[in-house]
Design a protein that fits this description.
Strands 6-5-4-1-7 form a five-stranded antiparallel beta sheet. Strands 2-3 form a two-stranded antiparallel ribbon. The termini are far apart. The protein is 31% helix and 28% strand. Strand 2 and strand 3 form a beta hairpin. It has two domains: 30 residues; 116 residues, no CATH class.
Length: 151
């Protein structure tokens, strides 16, 4: 009888941890280390017909660290789903932006549970995940070569 009660308590604890992770991004959902493609928003970029120089993007200030999900829809990674801190609300958001607005590509382990949760949830039904650190490293090399930006 003691083992049945302890098994029930373990199940309840796991359920509560999952709920807390889902609601607040606290605790660990799996305990695994997740690797992700990470970059920073460019300092300046040309915008519009007049090629006006703007700092950052509509959603992110320049230099903001963004966590990028893997390619989702076969566009050659021209646009990516990213997770980062919004320039106005200072809250975590998940949006789609052109990859040309991201620089300083690198592979990093993700420890922030809020970011892990947002990556896991994806964006409007698109939720492919990075499988290995090597897969992320291959994309880093490809994006650095394509964009001409370094480290």
């Amino acid at each position: 009888m003691v083992s049945t009660e302890s098994n029930a308590m373990i199940a309840i604890r796991q359920t509560l941890q999952g709920i807390c992770f889902w609601l607040f991004g606290t605790g660990s959902s799996t305990g695994q280390t997740h690797y992700c493609l990470v970059g920073n928003i460019v300092e300046e970029h040309a915008f519009g017909e007049s090629r006006e120089l703007l700092q950052g993007t509509k959603h992110f200030t320049s230099g903001t660290k963004v966590y990028c999900l893997p390619p989702q829809w076969g566009d050659g990674y021209e646009k990516a789903i990213v997770v980062g801190i919004c320039r106005k609300s200072r809250r975590w958001i998940t949006v789609v932006i052109p990859t040309k607005l991201i620089t300083n590509w690198r592979a990093k382990a993700v420890y922030k549970t809020t970011v892990q949760r947002r990556i896991h949830l994806g964006f409007q039904g698109f939720n492919a995940q990075w499988k290995t650190q090597k897969e992320v490293a291959r994309w880093v090399a490809s994006l650095r070569q394509r964009g001409g930006t370094s480290s």
